[in-house]
Structure formats: structure tokens, C-alpha cells
Amino acid sequence: MKGEHSIRGLWQSSGEAAEQTARQLGITLTHQPTRCPFFRGKLTIDGLAPELVFDSAKIQDLQDCKVTQNGDATIVQGMLHQTFSFTANGKPFLVLPRAVARLAANTSDNHLLFADAVITQEGTHVGLTLSGSNEVVIHAYPALAKLPSITGAQVELVEPASPALSAFKVKFQPVEYSASLIKITPHKYKIHFDRSLADFADVHMQIDYVGDTAMAFIDGEMIDDHMYNGRPWIIGLKRFASRLKGDDMVLAFREIRRNASCLRDIPAEYQPTFPEGKDTQLEIKGVHFTTEYQASLTLP
User: Fold this and answer.
1) If you average pLDDT over residues 197-207, what whole number do you get?
2) CATH number, domain containing residue 193
3) Lowest mean pLDDT among 8-17, 67-76, 131-140
4) Who contacts 161 (Cβ-Cβ below 8 Å, separation ≥6)?
5) What separation in angstroms does the CA of 207 have from each of 118, 127, 234, 288?
């Protein structure tokens, strides 16, 4: 989408004109626009406050925006990086910062949910998957009349980013996972999994290393591999839960050479540092574990 703000399918405007404007601005209309010939429309470029321009409309219910006139045009202007809303001829508009709009997920009852998490529709319920944190704030549009019911976590009301939205925080009981990294040789390590993975939604193992390639084995079978790109190697462990119960995973690494062709594709900030006088480098920096949380929501 163009510009810092996006209209996320919440307008109902002037049919073909709205669709044409949406195409020009790179916007997808997720609801069929109705015939109401008042919208001319404008979306600002990066760094400018968002504006919407109407040929003729009755603007009401302004939240965090203002209205000005320029000849026959009515201009609704919001603030940069802020959510705002209004109605035009009784039809609702919600304008969102692009970073927020990208988090949107549709539900089967025509709500939009905004959260830094994975949201899925599962029959009459909404599935929530969260990784790296045990809590998340979810915004809903249109605003919910009351809190949703939840299984697998706790939920509480919080202040929304805009009066047009409702917001609630989902909190999970924090759980952590750890396992020991044991050096066998300079190129081979093993990880012993004492604690069962069966009680976790999932556990993501992040292996931070500098090298050329790496492989992971369970009982002699390669179950994953990785080419160094400067970022941690991540392996989801839940799929191996039964095989890792009281067993080891072996990690094998190959050192990277100073003249390796793959280095041309790695961004400067992730380029490895070679020790003085050496043309190869292999460094195993450590292993970290991130737990995943899951819950089921029922919207009111």
C-alpha cells in the first residue's frame, strides 16, 4: 500500500469511483462499495499527514481528526502515525497507520482484529497464536460491546488506540524451556532434552552461529539443515516431541571461508568477522528457546 496510512476495507463509498481510487492508491476493498457518489479520495505519501477529500458529504463523529473546506471540497485530515475515524453521510471510515493495518485479520462475523500475533478463524472461534511474549493487545473494529470469552489464557479490557476501536489484552501464564548445549568436537554439538515438549504449544529453538552450513540429526537422521545468512537458525521442536523425549539432537557445522561466494548475498550488518590471519571462521554463539502460546476466543 502507498503512504503511511491505509483504509482497510472499512469504507462504503462511490462504487466504480471508489474502486478506481483504490486501484490508484494500491488499496484492496474487502467489502463491496455501495452507490453513494460523494467520495473523491486521497491518501498521502510517506511523511505527510493523511487526508481524505470529498466533493460533497456530511462529516460527523470525528475522532482524532479535523475538517477543513477548500472551495467545494471537504477535507478530513488526521495526524501522522495515528488512527482516526469519522462518518461521511452516515457511513463509517477508519484510517489506520500502515504498520497497524498490516496486522489486520478478518473474522467470520465481519470484525477486523489487529494484533502482533497469528489470528485464524476456527469455526465459530478465533484462534490466537503468540510467540516471543506471553501477552498481546488486540484491537477490534467495529468495537466489541463486551470482552470476548477465552480458553487457554486470561483477558482484560485496555484503552483502545481510537474510540472507534475496542481493545483487550490477552495474557498467558509464562512458561520457559531450556536445554543443555554440549560440545563434542569443534564442528559437532549435541543438545539433550530432559524436559518433555508435549505440554507446550510449540518451542522454537534459535541457534546463533557463524559458519557456512549446519545440519541437525536425531538418531542419525537429518531432520533439518541451514545455510548461514547472518540470522539465527530456527527449528520448531513440537513435531519432534516424541523422538526427543530423553534423547539428543546432534548439530553439525561447517566453517565458512573468507572468499565464500554466499557472502555476496549477506547484508553488511550480518557479515562474519574473520580472525586476523585466518581464512575460515566457525563460531557457535549459543542456543535460545522461545515458547509459543495458543488460545481460543469467542467474540460476543
Assistant:
1) 92
2) 2.60.120
3) 8-17
4) 82, 83, 100, 139, 167
5) 23, 28, 6, 7
